[in-house]
Design goal:
With 250 residues, this protein is mainly alpha-helical. The protein has one domain. It is built from eight helices and two strands, in the order H-H-H-H-H-H-E-E-H-H. Strands 1-2 form a two-stranded antiparallel ribbon. Helix 2 crosses helix 3, helix 2 runs antiparallel to helix 8 and helix 5 runs antiparallel to helix 8. The chain is rod-shaped and about 110 Å long. It starts with a helix and ends with a helix. Keywords: Membrane, Transmembrane, Transmembrane helix.
Length: 250
């Protein structure tokens, strides 16, 4: 319709009408583009808001899983410390016997890293990470995801080093044929079965220099696992603090 009117006005050399029709066309195109851009911006904002909601939910669960794993490693380290001190003193007190049994059972055990953020990985792999407009949050998310790769690599190195001492560490220990299969919430992050120690020969341990070295190395390496998770927990806390601050700003 506009085209027919424009053609008619050109033939009639009604230049004012031609200019008016042209202006109407330009304004119409401009308004159409503005509406389209506004709709796209609203859609992107909605996706951005939803991503933040999902990140808050995910990192609450991730934080809980990391706390469980941190507690698990802390207890292993504490039990190994009891064993090393007992070897240095040359005696086992009645109230530390269970701690030593736990150290011998779990001294080389490790759990899966805290879970990754599915929301972050989806945004990153699809090239939509810019939907998270908080640059500091994006950086922290990247750092956390990289920390998971570091934990996996570190665990592989620790396992390789522990393999040199595992034979000596188990030398004076009797294990049950059965294994404890973790099925409680506290061990939900683990995909391992836990060995059961039925007895140990402390006198043989005390007089075996290879065992003492193995116990010390197990302690040192499990401290390394614990530190890795504590670093990861720090990154998780930073992310949650940013998310909480954004929530309060809204």
């Amino acid at each position: 319709m506009i085209l027919r009117r424009l053609t008619k006005h050109v033939k009639e050399q009604n230049w004012f009408a031609v200019a008016l029709d042209f202006l109407i066309v330009v304004v119409g195109v401009f308004l159409g583009l503005q509406v389209s851009n506004w709709n796209e911006d609203q859609s992107l904002q909605a996706r951005s808001d939803q991503s933040i909601v999902e990140l808050r939910r995910e990192f609450a669960d991730i934080d809980a899983a990391a706390s469980e794993l941190s507690q698990f490693y802390r207890e292993i380290v504490e039990d190994l410390e009891v064993l090393v001190v007992a070897l240095e003193r040359g005696e086992v007190s009645p109230d530390t016997s269970d701690d030593i049994i736990n150290a011998l059972a779990y001294g080389e055990v490790f759990g899966d890293p805290p879970p990754p953020s599915g929301t972050f990985r989806d945004l990153n792999s699809s090239g939509n990470l810019a939907l998270i407009d908080n640059q500091k949050l994006r950086l922290r998310l990247i750092e956390y995801d990289q920390s998971l790769e570091n934990i996996v690599a570190s665990d592989a190195n620790i396992n390789a080093m522990l393999a040199q001492y595992n034979v000596a560490f188990r030398r004076h220990v009797t294990f049950s044929a059965a294994h404890a299969i973790p099925d409680g919430e506290d061990f939900s992050f683990q995909d391992v079965s836990l060995p059961l120690v039925t007895s140990f020969d402390f006198e043989a341990m005390r007089t075996d220099p290879d065992f003492s070295v193995a116990a010390q190395q197990h302690l040192r390496l499990q401290i390394g696992r614990y530190i890795n998770i504590r670093i990861s927990q720090s990154k998780i806390r930073q992310i949650r603090d940013i998310l909480d601050a954004d929530d309060h700003a809204d």
